[in-house]
Amino acid sequence: MPRDKFLQRKESVLSKLDKSSKGKWDSKVKNLCNKINSLDNFYTTSSCSGRIILMIDQKKKGSSLFLKIWHDKISFKELEDALKSLKKEKKAVKFKFEPPIIHLACKSLEDASKIIAEAKISGFKSGGIITWGKNIFVELNSTEKLEFPVSVKGEILVNDKFLKLVIKISNQKFEEGWKKIDKLEKKIK
Hints:
single chain, alpha+beta, SSo0622-like fold, five-stranded antiparallel sheet, four-stranded antiparallel sheet, 5 helices
């Protein structure tokens, strides 16, 4: 009897080294990924529990665009120190808060629909099914985004009062996203 192709793909994907810039799962999403990967009809392909980024503001993607990345709450001092290092940066730089995102493969459309329903109940407002040939993937997104220009040609465009507010809001958004991750982990069976 031939081996199940979905199981073969799952074993292949999960046996590979993590290719993310961080090189490992975020601690806040690790338990959810482990739970998903323990199920017969699912496996994760990439996940992030949320992040704050200082990055070059341009349309074309590339690895050298990220100047600083945090996957956890930050303090004003951490952001202030990172911004001081931008004084020599000639290009525009933006601040981004990106919410949790989970990518997973599903064995069937029924499995994909089921996990999207559980994610929506858990607070993930955006989710969709992506098919690629016979492969079925789900992308689950939380919606707590924040993005704005922070410097141009080394000149900081915002004041400390604004940055303190942004840090407070971003740290709250981290908490909101992590609660959704925890809810989804509890709902998945």
